[in-house]
Amino acid sequence: MSKYQSSIVTNQDTEDLSQALIVYYCLCGEYALIIEKSLETLPVRPTDHSIVINNTNYIYTLSAQKGQPVIIQRNENFEKQYRYYCTRCRLPIAYDTVQVDTSYHSSVNNSRHHRHNKTEQKAPYTYIMPDALVLKQGLVPDIFAHELESTKNSG
Predict the structure, then answer these.
(1) Main-chain dihedrals φ then ψ at residue 44, nearest 5 degrees
(2) What is the mean pLDDT of residues 83-97?
(3) Which of 4, 25, 92, 114 ranks highest by number of CB atoms within 10 Å?
(4) Are 151 and 127 in contact (CB under 8 A)?
């Protein structure tokens, strides 16, 4: 099976597609995410208020550099996060999670063969960190605007 997929796009398709896509930028102004759905309409993760993108339901492009995994303790459990950083300023903008499972369990390989092993499964979600992306280049989120204004006034 090929790693590449080709598509035929007509002018009609291009117009419909460009109207449906939304571009988000990092706080530094670098483009970071192109997605077909507004982030404001997606669910929010209760643990850290990150925006949840279901990787099986949405097509998107995340322009970011993947960093080393980070282990986060959440109550009595641990979560392994693969963080994504802005390619320009290195601000963390998103992450994928992997549950750290130290038990042996059965997993499916190629839908036909079963094997028992110690595994880490990538979750089917990508999480956008709160207030990490904006719709307009140079726009400061409201949460930071007050701090920016007080810095200007004190200087």
Answers:
(1) -115, 135
(2) 95
(3) 25
(4) no
Interval 27-59: pLDDT, tens = 999 999 999 999 999 999 999 999 999 988 988
CB-count burial class (<10 Å; 0-12, 13-18, 19+) for 53: buried
Q: How far apart are CA 92 and CA 87, in angstroms?
A: 10
Domain that holds residue 37: 11-139
In the chain, how many domains are there?
Answer: 1
Half-sphere exposure of residue 63: CA atoms within 13 angstroms, side-chain side = 15
- Find tokens 């994504």 and name the residue: 84
54 assigned to some structural domain? yes
Distance CA 25, CA 128 (A): 12
The answer to whether residue 1 is domain-embedded is no
**144 domain residue, yes or no:** no
